[in-house]
Structure formats: C-alpha cells, structure tokens
Amino acid sequence: MSNIQGAWHERRPANLVYVRDLFRELIARDLKLRYKRSVMGIAWTLLNPLTELLILFVIFGAVLPLNIPNYAAFLFTGILAYGWFQNSLYFATNAIVGNRELVRQPGFPVLILPVVTVASNLIHFLLALPILFVLLVSSGVTVTWALLALPVVILLEFMLTLSLAYFVATFHVRFRDTQYLLRVLLQLTFYLTPVFYEASAIPEPFQWLYRLNPMVFLVESYRSVLIGGQFPAPGNTVIMTLGTAGLLFVGLRVFMRTSHRFVDEL
Amino acid sequence: MKDAIVVRNLSKRFRRYHPDRPWTLQEAVAGGLRRLRAVEQFWGLRDVSFTVPVGQVVGVVGANGSGKSTLLRLVGGVGRPDSGTVEVNGRIGALLDLGAGFHPDLTGRENVFVAGVVAGLTRRDVVERFDSIVAFAELEEFIDHPLRTYSTGMQMRLAFAVAIHVDPEILLIDEVLSVGDLGFQRKCLDRIAEFRGHGCSILLVSHEASMVRDLCDEALWLSAGRLVLRGKAGMVVDGYVKQISAGGRQLGGISTEETSFAAPPAPSAAEDRQAAKSSVDQNRLGSLELEITAVRFLDEEGQEIREFHSGHPLRIEISFLATRRILAPIFQVYIFREDDLVCCDLNTEGTELKAAQVEGRGRVALCLEHFDLKGGLYYVDVGSYAQNWAYAYDYHSSLHPLRITGEGVETHRNAPHHWEISAGIGLKPTASELEPAGGANYGD
What we know:
The complex is a heterodimer.
Chain A: H1 8-11, H2 16-35, H3 43-63, H4 71-92, H5 94-97, H6 100-103, H7 112-138, H8 150-174, H9 178-191, H10 204-210, H11 214-228, H12 234-265
Chain B: E1 5-17, H1 25-31, E2 38-52, E3 57-62, H2 68-75, E4 83-88, E5 92-95, H3 108-118, H4 123-137, H5 152-164, E6 170-174, H6 182-197, E7 201-205, H7 209-215, E8 218-223, E9 226-232, H8 233-245, H9 268-280, E10 284-285, E11 290-298, E12 307-309, E13 314-327, E14 330-337, E15 342-347, E16 356-368, E17 376-385, E18 392-396, E19 401-405, E20 417-421, E21 427-429, E22 440-442
Parallel strand pairs in B: 3-7, 3-8, 5-6, 6-7, 12-19
Antiparallel strand pairs in B: 1-2, 1-4, 8-9, 10-18, 11-13, 13-16, 14-15, 14-17, 16-20, 16-21, 17-18, 17-19, 20-22
Helix pairs in contact in B: 3-4, 3-5, 4-5, 7-8
C-alpha cells in the first residue's frame, strides 16, 4: 500500500508546457551529445543512410539489377524508414540504463525516456527527408495529394517503434546483453523488410507470413504515398492502427509495471 | 498545519541474488534459469515511521548501507515500498545524485537547462533564474565551458544551485554537501537555514555528526534498515557517535552481513507492543525489550518534585522492566532547555552495569550532587540502550518537563554525579558484589 505512485504530476507543473520543455531539453541533449565532439556535426546523420544508399544502389541497381523503377528514391525511402526503426530500438536499450540519475530523480517521469529516444531519431529521419525529395523530383516522380497521408504513416511508425522500445528498454535493465541479441534480430528484420527489393518478390504461399512483419506495411505505405502517389489501403491502415495501438498499450503496461524496480536494478 | 512528510511503517525489501546471478541472457541460458531467482530477501528498511513538521530540518544518520539513501528515495517517490505509506505535502527539491541529468560533454549552461527542467522547472523558469543560479554557484566565468573541465566541487556547486532554485517546499539532500569547499559549504548551510526560515522542510542525510547537530532540529538514526532512535538531533548524534566509537558491531549493511533480519532481536511480544505504542505515542521509540516504565524527580529528602531549585541535589529515578535477560544495558539522561540548548548528557557507560545483566523490574537513579542550571523550563529525556549503543530499547523524548527556579549556569555538562543501581529483582551482577541494602555507587 502506498500513495506514492502516480504522484509525480501532483508535485510538478503538470501542464503541457512543462512536458514540452522536458521533451525539448532531453531531445536537445541527445542530439548535442551525439554530435558535440565531431567536426561535421549533424552531417553524420546524413552520411550513414547516404552510404547505405550508394552501396545498395550499386549492387542492386548495377551489379545484380532488380529492375525496379525509380530505384534510388525507392531505396532511400526504405533505408530511411527502416533506419529510424532500427536506430530507435538500438538506442532504446540505453534509454533507462544510460540515464540512471534521471531514473533516480524524485518525480521524474521515467515513461518519457523511450519516447525521447524514438523522437530524437525521428529528427534524424526528418532531416534526411529533403534529400529524399530531391531524389524524388530528380527521378521525375510527381507529388500528389497522397503526400498528405505521410504524417499518418510517420505517426504509425512512431507508435510501433515506441511500443517495441518500451519492451527493449525494460528488457535491457534486466539482461545487459539485450543489445547484442537485438543487433542480430534487427539485421534479420532488415532482410525481412522490403528495403531494397519489392514485397511482391516474395512467393505467394509465404506472403501472409511475410506480412506479419508490420514494417512491410509501413515501408510499402511510405512508397505508395511518396512514389506511387496513392493513399495507403484504408482497410490495412485501420488494422495497422489498431494493432500498434494495442501493442503500445501492452508495451506501456509492461514498462510501467516494472519501472518501479528499475531503481533497484540499476 | 499538515506535516510536510509523514512516513508510516515504511518497509522496503531488497532481493539478494545468487552471486553468479546472470546479468546477461547468454549466461542465463547457459546457467539455467534456476539462478535467476533471488536467493534471499532482506529488509533495506523495516517499519520506519516518522514525521517532518513544516519548517523543520531532520537529519538522518547511520552506517553505510543502513537504509538512509533508500529512505530518501522512497520519500522522493522513487521506487515502491513493500509496505507502509509516504505522504508528502509540497513540492520536492532533491539533491540525491550529484547533478541529475548532468553530462560532462555539455557546457555548464546547457547542463543548467537540462537539470533545471529535469528537476521540475519549465524552460521559462530556468531562463528567469539562470543568472541567479550561476551567481550562487560562483561559476560565471566557466558557465560556457564543458562540464568535464569542472572540478567535483564546481559540479556540486552547480547542482546545489539548481536544486535550491526549484523553490522546493521540501528539500531532500543526500550526502552531497560535503563535496564543496568550506566557504561554499557555509553558503549552502546559510541557504538551508534561510529556506527553513521560509517554512521549507528538509530531510538531510549526512555522515558529518557536527553538521546534523548544528543544522537539524531532529534526527533519525538508522541501523540495518530500522529506526534505532529518533529525537533531538544532538542526542541522536551523540548516541550514534558513541556507538561508532565504541566499535559496536555495525549492524548496517545491505551488502555484507546476515544480521539484517536479526537486529534488534526483539521477541514478538515486545514488537507487538511497540507497534501498538508507536502509533499512539510519537515520543517513544525503541524495541521495548528494556522498557522505561517511570521517571521520577526526587529532592534530597526523597520527595517527588516537579519544580527544582538550582544548586540543590537532584535524583532522577528511572524504573524499568526487562522482558528478557539483558546484558550490559546503558541508561542515558539527557537534559535540554526549552530552546534545545543541551545542558547535560550523562550515561551509565563505565559503571558496573557494563558487566551486569538485568531481568524483570528494576531501578537506576542518577544522583546529581548539586545541579546548578539557571531558572527555566527544561526537558529530561531518558533512554535505555543495548550493549555498545547498538540500538535503543526505549527512549522518552520530551516527555518529562522539569521547571528549574533560581540562578545558575547555562549548561552544566560535568555536574558532579553518580549512578545508583538498585539491587532489586532485576540486577544480577556477574562479576562484582553488590551491597545488599543501599545500592552500589559508581562515581563520576
């Protein structure tokens, strides 16, 4: 019996201004720390996906041509979408373990830490978007009204990544090698996600299994919105929304139920 | 007015894991899931109750691992107690870790913003207070340098400056004040005093006995997660220091020993009574194995008095009841003035009690041959302790007022005195003989 839980908001300015400021400071801290001591600063954010683009473009555009139209834009969309997902989860392992003093700060909403991780990686994603638009325009893709659905797709990916980030962060507190296991899993899902190939290349009998990976739907949605000029299929979008909402609910619950023990385990 | 902090029967259990407890999945899989379970549980805090009234400073002393930091964290709402409640009425400012949110690669300025927001301020609040924070920390010249170039003392100054600019109504301070240089320490202490003047309540952990004595109204002494003693800061610190210097077995220890469950080894009947009592009586504390049943003030004719005329002899008689055989108990008499000035602090250490054991009912008396305090209202606290001040059996805090009339001195710490141990049913000397009739005298 205790009346402590849930009390943080009573002791703090529980208003949106405060939460916004907390986000802003923590995200800024994340970004500053990642690039503080490097000369090129934020350019590193772009270097990584661009290198990946170059490699995959050479291999599957020229060496083993897959003959996908607008391949550069096609590739870069997949790389950015998957990159955001991958980096967020990878950094989420450190969201709790790397912020020991914050977790121990009275009244600090621990819940916010995985959100900060996913959000600061979203910023990297957004910073790379202009390059993607350059690629789109230079390959002659016409931008349509379907672009309006882009924020929805981003929001869906945010929710999906966040719910998994809650699991990963919780798990890493207990097992400190989660990071390595995760790296393997993320490498596997990279190939199970249509980053450099088309989802339709998967043989029909396995399609249903393949499509259990929610990243398949998300990457395809980005492409249909950006390249195909079409809104994502409404039916699947609704299923996806409900699915991620459910997952987020479970992830949040697991996180909250274990979060009071974090301080003892750190 | 509501108390700032009310802690009731707070307990926190920690799990001690197998020494080879796997910290990685790989080991967990290789070693079998068996070892994942906690081998043993122990109490980091056990049944701790106290209140911090608004505007008071309460110190927490105790050996390493006695539960001080755990207590502070639970009061701050970090972690969850296994039983008991914490009620906190007011905005909390905390200095538990040196600079929560501080990062060595960020500049002082950036760190102030992060730490300020983490501590509960909005950005606008931080902007408004920024100059004042930096000025208090005396770091104007360095504020745009990375934190890694700061000394520990400088970091602590910055952390403290942020913490006090949160305008806390309740301030939790864990052991950090000792980091700064003396000048800054003085400044912090002044600021704490000022805060308290504004009605801010403070819970402070410190290893420095003198700091607790000077700064705190009351103090809590924790040992192995239990509240050994609560009372006037000076008195509690004295007890603690004596126990340390007596080399008493250190009962504290989250990490080391098996005694956590055992101390104090109270019979369950006594525990029940304690539970019943502590809820009704805020001024009593201890395991009650050696209960103080009555305290009387007697004049030279043996008449009970309520008012004492300075310069005369005074006899303070303590009746006790030992629920089991107890070896080498210590009795203490602690006299302080209404305004907390400590006037006299005497105990039976060094008397024959050291080699005696008591059981059942008995009496000890402190005979002050002449006691010369000047007129005023005083309180006489009495306590009984286990061997080597290990923990308190019973303690009466501010329960026995004594009005003194006439002229005299402010404090009379070395008043001529001796202890009289009544040869009642209780006393069973092991080594020495006792006079059958009058009692044994042990001089000062």
